[in-house]
UniProtKB/TrEMBL annotation:
One of its GO terms (molecular function) is cyclic-di-GMP binding. It comes from Pseudokineococcus marinus. InterPro entries: PilZ_domain (IPR009875). This is PilZ domain-containing protein. Residues 105-214 form the PilZ domain.
């Protein structure tokens, strides 16, 4: 049909687009390595992004007209949108949207072993109220965390809602989370508590993802991965 582009473009609603300045995951269909890129600008049918980087922080090459998926967190959900790579340059590229944004299930968010001192408390007590306990966070991803909790000082029940305060740069405040498992740590008096974050904002996910990727880069440089 005359006047019709060979590439079908789908509008990206402004209220569903990732915020300018946020990090998104870039998933080329030809590879299964975690890449991230920062959003520079957002339009109704495209996004402008910086060049994507891998876990080591090295810039990764894309191919003109390559099909990739962009994935980001929004209000506690994971959103994905298919795009085509256009206008590649040394500074960045344009992602032309080819399908509507959809809530997606990601089997495993990129996670890293960490050694953070956080603070946990029951959500029912409210932030800054009730009993708050210092914990050691051993594992972190944008979808959740695992931490060591003294069950005598603070007994947490399965499916209980809590808030977890982490010392991460750029994290606006404590994260809401739900207890998904509890396992006794042999040889200690601690319980390993698995948490799934709930209601995370784009800023929350961005701060956690930055820390996770920085930690993985550090471990790879040290040969620990």
């Amino acid at each position: 049909m005359a006047g019709t582009s060979s590439t079908a473009r789908a509008l990206l609603p402004a209220d569903e687009a990732p915020p300018t300045g946020s990090l998104v995951d870039v998933a080329p269909h030809r590879a299964h390595v975690p890449l991230t890129a920062r959003v520079v600008a957002v339009g109704p049918d495209r996004l402008v992004l910086e060049r994507p980087a891998d876990l080591l922080g090295a810039a990764s090459r894309l191919v003109e007209d390559e099909a990739v998926d962009l994935v980001w967190s929004e209000a506690g959900s994971v959103v994905g949108v298919p795009v085509l790579v256009r206008d590649l340059s040394d500074d960045g590229w344009t992602a032309v949207v080819t399908g509507a944004p959809q809530r997606v299930q990601r089997r495993e968010a990129v996670r890293a072993p960490v050694d953070l001192r956080g603070r946990i408390g029951r959500a029912a007590d409210g932030l800054g109220a009730g009993q708050v306990l210092e914990v050691v966070v051993e594992d972190l991803s944008e979808s959740g965390a695992r931490c060591l909790v003294d069950p005598v000082a603070l007994r947490l029940e399965q499916d209980e809602l809590v808030h977890l305060d982490l010392p991460l740069e750029g994290l606006p405040g404590p994260l809401a989370a739900r207890v998904v498992h509890r396992r006794y740590r042999h040889g200690t008096r601690a319980t390993l508590v698995g948490l799934r974050f709930e209601g995370t904002t784009a800023a929350d996910a961005d701060a956690v993802r930055r820390h996770v990727f920085a930690r993985l880069r550090e471990l790879r440089r040290r040969g620990a991965l």
